[in-house]
Design brief:
The complex is a heterodimer of chains A (278) and B (98). Chain A is built from 12 helices and no strands. In chain A, helix 9 runs antiparallel to helix 12. Chain A is 68% helix and 0% strand. Chain A has 278 residues and is mainly alpha-helical. The radius of gyration of chain A is 24 Å and the shape is globular. The longest helix of chain A is centred in the first third of the chain and has 32 residues, at 66-97. Chain A has helices spanning 6-34, 54-61, 66-97, 103-114, 122-131, 142-163, 166-174, 179-190, 192-208, 211-216, 225-230, 242-268. In chain B, helix 2 packs antiparallel against helix 5 (64-89) and helix 4 packs antiparallel against helix 5 (64-89). Chain B is elongated. Chain B has helices at residues 3-14, 16-31, 35-40, 50-60, 64-89. Chain B is mainly alpha-helical and 98 residues long. Classes of the chains: A mainly alpha (278), B mainly alpha (98). At the A-B interface, helix 4 and helix 10 of A face helix 2, helix 3, helix 4 and helix 5 of B.
Chain lengths: 278, 98
């Protein structure tokens, strides 16, 4: 490997700095705006002169129940991830481990479904939700979210499942394990990194979803956070409360950051480290 | 050999397949965009996206038939785009190995 020249090194760091600033600046600006009130909102200072947490307090004491929306979002996302993982891992076992006719076609159509425009199922899903009695209930959103995240979840888990050593499965069968036991007690511990990363992506997808949350839920107490933030209104019709909106956006970003930091080690940790020797 | 040449001649051709899959996914994602445009332009009708149009017809105006026709058209547009793109770039989504 040739030593890099000084100029190249300087250029490399310069470009990386620009990229970091470009991607982090909007978030920094959101935090800064969320700490401003009154006329300070319309100045471009990055460090607000008299910062206070009034916007955050207003968010939770306002007319709209933002705390309730936050709880709604968390419940919906965790339920979605749980259902998607349960169905995803069982489907992935079948698609990754068992030979049957038409498997390739099934996998490709799974991928095709994930490209499907979500709005195309809006009317059908509306009927389904209504006949299940889940219209205007936040738990009803678990149904569409699980359906939208499943193709992707199954696809990723299948590719991981295929990589696992076949000897493990054979050994388990020799020891008298049924398929369910193979899935949950042999493969699942090995699939943790895959489960964590797909679960995280499913969580983020459900957390950010907007259209279905807007359409299937009407009352304020059943909203999820993306819709709640978009509906934050000022004291008068002509005022856009940027401070409160930014405070809401910052709060909504924090759980995702926490999840990623918490699971980071698991995502990168070795996949089958120590399972099969040699 | 110059590193840039290595990148253009070797690395890029090797990652061409996954790159194209990533591009087709982003392409289809942007064709069905709804939330960004809906929120940022206050649901204005001059900046409405295809998904937004379908949702407005079905949910706000209650035109179920017209909305369904629009959503079917949107589906066909997106599917055709995907098929044409995958044909032109000769990318296979999945190898049919057992």
């Amino acid at each position: 490997m040739k030593q890099r020249s000084t100029l190249a090194t300087v250029l490399l760091y310069l470009i990386s700095t620009v990229i970091v600033i470009l991607s982090l600046y909007p978030f920094v600006y959101a935090i800064s705006t969320s700490l401003k009130t009154g006329n300070a909102l319309f100045t471009a200072d990055l460090l607000p002169s008299n910062a206070d947490l009034r916007n955050y307090r207003a968010l939770f004491e306002g007319v709209q129940p933002f705390g309730k929306s936050l709880v709604n979002s968390i419940v919906v996302c965790f339920l979605t991830v749980a259902f998607a993982m349960l169905m995803g891992i069982t489907a992935a076992y079948a698609l990754g481990r068992i030979r049957f006719k038409g498997k390739g076609l099934l996998l490709v159509s799974l991928l095709g479904v994930s490209m499907f425009p979500q709005v195309a199922v809006l009317s059908g899903m509306f009927e389904l939700i209504q006949s299940l009695g889940l219209y205007n209930k936040v738990l009803g959103l678990v149904v569409p979210y699980t359906i939208f995240t499943l193709p992707f979840t199954v696809w990723i888990l299948t590719t991981f499942m295929r990589e696992l050593p076949g000897e493990l499965e054979e050994a388990a069968i020799m020891d008298g394990c049924g398929p369910l036991r193979i899935i949950f007690q042999v493969f699942m511990p090995l699939l943790w990194p895959a489960l964590v990363s797909t679960g995280l992506l499913a969580f983020i997808g459900a957390w950010n979803e907007f259209m279905f949350a807007l359409t299937f839920v009407v009352s304020d107490t059943e909203r999820t956070v993306p819709v709640a933030i978009s509906l934050i209104a000022g004291a008068t019709a002509f005022e856009i409360p940027w401070g409160t909106i930014m405070a809401g956006s910052v709060i909504v970003t924090v759980p995702l950051l926490l999840l990623v930091f918490f699971f980071q080690k698991r995502i990168v940790s070795g996949l089958t480290a120590g399972a099969v020797k040699g | 050999m110059h590193p840039l040449r290595v990148f253009w001649r070797i690395t890029l051709p090797l990652i061409r397949q996954p790159l194209m899959v990533a591009i087709v996914f982003r392409l289809l994602d942007s064709l069905r965009v709804f939330d960004l445009i809906y929120v940022l332009t206050s649901n204005g009708s001059s900046t409405i996206s295809m998904s937004g149009f379908v949702r407005r017809e079905m949910v706000e105006y209650g035109n179920m038939g017209f909305g369904s026709a629009a959503s079917t058209s949107l589906f066909l547009i997106i599917m055709l785009t995907a098929v044409i793109f995958l044909r032109l770039t000769r990318v296979k989504l999945a190898e049919d190995n057992p």
